[in-house]
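for the writeup, i need someone to sanity check this before i put it in the appendix. the sequnce is what the collaborator sent (i think, or maybe the updated version? ugh). structure was predicted straight from it, no edits. if anything looks off just tell me and ill rerun, i have time this weekend
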Amino acid sequence: MNAEAPTMSLTSVAALRRKLGQNGFRPVALHSNEKRPFGAAWQERARQNPPEATTAPPHPAALNTGILCYGLRALDVDVDDPALAEQLEALATETLGPAPVRWRANSGRRLLLYRSAEGAAGRAGGARRGAGRRSGDCWQRDLCGTRRGRGMMQKRRENPLNLAQAAPRCGARNRQGGACMSPAMANGRCRLHGGKSTGPRTTEGIARIKAARTVQGLYGAEARELRRHISELLAGAAHLVEET
């Protein structure tokens, strides 16, 4: 929220945190005018049943409120251009499904929250304004209160190679006798093992490629059969020499 936003009273802060707890969230006390958790071991205190912030009186120096969001994954659209940011948000929604979105009025940047596939899941939602940051093993979201300055959203950057590493592998036999580990294209092979060309598929096409003129025929079926026959003759000759 903007720095001009009024500070909430102790009573309203306590009521907000109780309501969050009743709706299944785990509220976290934040320093007033900041998005920094108040006190030590705040993750453990937020995981209590009920969470400490829902029962303890608010501290005058900690009137901002966040929620513990362990189990969520944040998709940060770090783009100032509003039109481009909207396109990226639409692409994320089409690929991953709808999600709660947070943004700032003076920028195209926004944040989409998704539930993780593994790990203890949290509740996604709440106010759509404010800022957040990665702290320890939990996401702390600033829901209500005031903070100084613009407060640029901080994020945990994912490894940009994760998508490439998760792509299907080619699997074709390579020169070392193992399976090719290059990323596969649409037909299941990489660009070096036929990914860009399917080759002949019909009976007529296969017959035509067999009958096509070759440059030297070194690796054709007839040449391979001839080399096999020569190897057998040489082995037989060597055996005769040993016997004599």
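Residues 1-5, 119-157 have pLDDT under 50 and may be disordered. Residues 159-212 form one domain.
thx in advance!!
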